[in-house]
Amino acid sequence: MSYGKVFLVGAGPGDPGLITIRALELLREADSVIYDRLVNPLLLEFTKPGCRLIYAGKKAGVVGIRQDEINNLILEEASISGCVVRLKGGDPYLFGRGGEEAEMLASRGIEFGVVPGITSAIGVPAYSAIPVTHRNFSSSLTIITGHEPGNISLPRLSREDLRRNTLAILMGNRDMSALVKKLSELGYDNETPVAVIVNGTYSNQKTYVGTLSDIAMQDPIHDPDHPAMILVGNVVRVRDRLLPLYSSIDRKERIIYFSDYSDSGLPVRIKDHAGAEIIRYASYECEWINMDQVPVFLDRLKNSNRMIFSHGDVVKRFFQLLGESGFDIRDLPDEILSSESGLSELERHGITRCGKTVEVQVPDRHPARSLTVSGKTLEKDDFPETSRNSCTITVLRRKPKSLNELQIQQLNGDREASVVFPLFDLSRHIIPEMSIISLKNRKLYVKDKETMELLSAMGLDPAMLQSDTGNTGNAAAGVSND
Fold first, then answer.
1. How many helices (H) and strands (E) does the chain have?
2. What is the pLDDT of residue 345?
3. What 3-state class would DSSP assign to 308?
4. In the chain, where are the structural domains located?
5. Is the dihedral of CA 372, 373, 377, 380 positive or negative?
6. Which residues of 377-403 are buried (b: 16+ CB within 10 A; e: fewer)?
7. Strand residues in 100-246 grouped as ranges (E)
């Protein structure tokens, strides 16, 4: 059996800005991505259309997918894909079982690569204004996992060596009392500084500072559902000196924004929410109408005399397909119509004869037979024959995207974040996937009356987004340009 190439890729500690350029390149190339629970869901938005996204997350203390099942997933995807990305939080070789997966691939003769990631052991303290080493406080760093506090072991160090060492404990907040007891047995003084950092490098990161004698009494650190790391050592004292002038990632507000654009890489600016962190999800992907296979579609295109684009993103995807297929752009139909969002994109590709702006709606039922252009419903009979075959209505439309497991996890877990819903044609597909309980007692914004009515009927209290500046840079009242 032949296999594609597998890449073990580190996603970094959480902030999507901390992923490497090489990792992003592979996400854009991947045919399938097998991802973990600690991966930021925003990173999945960089994958190409049609990429298979497979959740293989484990949760501490919960029986979930086993490692041998993950190995089988990797093998299965490698047998049908040219490029498989195994995406892991932090670094794949640091407590991520990346070494085991690499051994498995090597034993099967499967070519693989490894892309290191910033480990939370270093990245998370940095975001909390704590250097893990410092000439005046610590000359060494020990990284351990805190899954089983009672079984922690350290190299034999003198009390002075312990004082000059920084101990980073990953996933260590399940049983703080047991952890403190074990560290005391290993020789740590009760007054040793300790920092517990929850949701590290995310905008809702929290840092709790104390000593071994009192850190276990701080209630917020006992929630095992939130990833946390523990830093033990005198470097924690440096934080007080750095924090006043440290450029914090804390923001006043977090907004989960369901975009009306499929390209999540485009920036979103909301005038009334300046400085907020925008957690952006693409709400749809492009779907091709009347296409069983790409070659058949392109052959039909040569026999069409009119082409209609419903959206600017559709134009982008269309020309991406043309580039992959080698289609000659001179074979496009003579008449090309587009909604306003697609005109500039067409001009970018040298299509300047498109002089008519239209509003396009593709009905949910029988989309291959008719569509609405500027209020008029067109059937196939409205298009004259151009050859032996009658003209095909060539349409690309928006297809709502289902939420992935990490997005659902973020929506349900981040109760402080506001939510901005897309326009109704997308909202009505997204809302049933969400937990209504998770939407209560938080701010909800909508862009049209239909979505407001839908949420109101569910007992929720949404507000109209009054001042939303979308990707065109123009302010819109109540309706997003995004």
1. 14, 25
2. 80
3. strand
4. 5-118, 122-245, 254-283+401-476, 285-400
5. negative
6. ebeeeeeeebeeeebbbbbbbbebbeb
7. 112-115, 140-145, 165-170, 193-198, 206-211, 228-232
d(CA 299, CA 391): 12
For residue 207, what are the β-bridge partners? 197
Residues 102-120: tens digit of each pLDDT: 999 999 999 999 999 999 9
As annotated, the active-site residues are: 36, 58, 171
Same CATH topology for 5-118 and 254-283+401-476?
no
Which residues, in sequence order, are CB contacts of 461 under 8 Å at separation 6+? 444, 455
Tell me the backbone φ, ψ of residue 418, rounded to 5 degrees.
-75, 165
pLDDT tier for residue 393 given thresholds of 50, 70 and 90:
very low
Spell out the CATH class of 254-283+401-476. Answer: alpha beta
Tell me the two tokens of residue 415: 């109760």
pLDDT value at position 172? 73
Share of the chain above pLDDT 70, in %: 75
Asked whether residue 179 carries a pLDDT value surpassing 80, the answer given is yes
Mean pLDDT, range 206-219, rounded to an integer? 86
Give the CATH number of domain 122-245; options: 3.30.70.1400, 3.40.50.300, 3.30.950.10, 3.40.50.2020. 3.30.950.10
Name residue 239's amino acid.
R
CATH code linked to domain 5-118: 3.40.1010.10
Over residues 472-478, mean pLDDT: 32
**d(C-alpha 418, C-alpha 253), whole Å:** 8
